[in-house]
Amino acid sequence: MNTLKDAPPAHLQDHFGKVPAVTLGFWLIKIAATTLGETAGDAVTMSMNLGYLVGTAIFAAILIVALIVQIRAKQFHPLLFWSVIVATTTVGTTLADFCDRSLGIGYMGGSTLLFALLMASLFTWHRSLGSVSINRLDTRKAECYYWVTILFSQTLGTALGDWVADPKTGWGFGYEGGALLFAGGLLLVIAAYRWTRISHTSLFWAAFILTRPLGATVGDLLDKPLANGGLALSRYTASAALATCMVALIFLLPQRAEKLASVRPD
Q1: Residue 13 clears pLDDT 60, i.e. is over it
Q2: What is the pTM of this model?
């Protein structure tokens, strides 16, 4: 029988964080979450006619509450973690649309601004703590950097997805073409992971960023009008179906916490 007396020394024990280990299941759920963020964000701002600013305020309030609970949690809770991810992606959807359309800076301006903010977040995080790896999320400061970086990446993904897909003011790939383009980018990252010596941390963040515009273009493909190249599905129906799919994936696919490389006091 294992007793406290038999336990290994503290420095040899495994310590786990509050984010999931990166597996195939992680990426499948992430894509479902980012697609849900697109349709749910559009449902509030467009179908309910609340506008981008009000929609951003609503989702930001939800995000703040979910994030406080996540940061205060002592261990990994799958539903809580993915709820925060969905909250960041809905805020990202409405905030990017507000910047691109309401502020009038366009897709290129919005994407450039958000890319700069994302790079600044990663740079500041690395400069402050020496690593941006998810297995170094062992302090609240590191967690805060992690979630700020995720929020910027989710917002950038919306702006970038719209810029690539829009036939009038963007690159004109369309929603299907945009989805294929970003899926191709993910395949290149996977190839780099398997057959090159590029930093796995860098590749993780590249894949994390690319899944957002992939979800954005798939979400737009589902709910945008036929005249604009979409399938004209109800945003409410699409969001409900995606939420159901996501919850099913969370329960059906293995979810374990990421092992921490070290443990430092807050």
Answers
A1: no
A2: 0.89
